[in-house]
């Protein structure tokens, strides 16, 4: 199984290889969150692991509301 790495995601954004603008914006937000991740970056090697850790942090499926609630706690 090929996992999408942050480097590959960055390349996709740089090459503008998205079907629609919404997908591109989502990818940009994922990279933005990864850049803000800080010391936890060492815990993840690819996008799949990042999402798993993020889901554990917010307590389930990542939604805007859960993300905002988690940020308020931090």
Question: Helix coverage percent of residues?
Answer: 55-70%
The shape is: globular
Q: Estimate the mean pLDDT confidence.
A: 79
How is the biggest beta sheet arranged? Answer: none
Low-confidence stretches: none
Distance between the first and last residues' Cα: 34 Å
What order do the helices and strands follow?
HHHH
CA gyration radius, whole angstroms: 13 Å
> Strand pairing plus helix content: what structural class?
mainly alpha
Content of β-strand: under 5%
**Secondary structure tally, helices:** 4
The count of strands amounts to 0
Layout of helices and strands, plus pairs?
Blueprint: H1 6-14, H2 21-35, H3 47-58, H4 64-73
Model description:
The protein has helices at residues 6-14, 21-35, 47-58, 64-73. The longest helix is centred in the middle third of the chain and has 15 residues, at 21-35. The mean pLDDT is 79. It has four helices and no strands. Helix content is 62%, strand content 0%. With 74 residues, the protein is mostly helical. Helix 1 (6-14) packs across helix 2.
Give the key terms.
74 residues; mainly alpha; 4 helices
What's this model, at a glance?
This protein has helices at 6-14, 21-35, 47-58, 64-73. The chain has 74 residues and is an all-alpha fold. It starts with 5 loop residues before the first helix and ends with a helix.
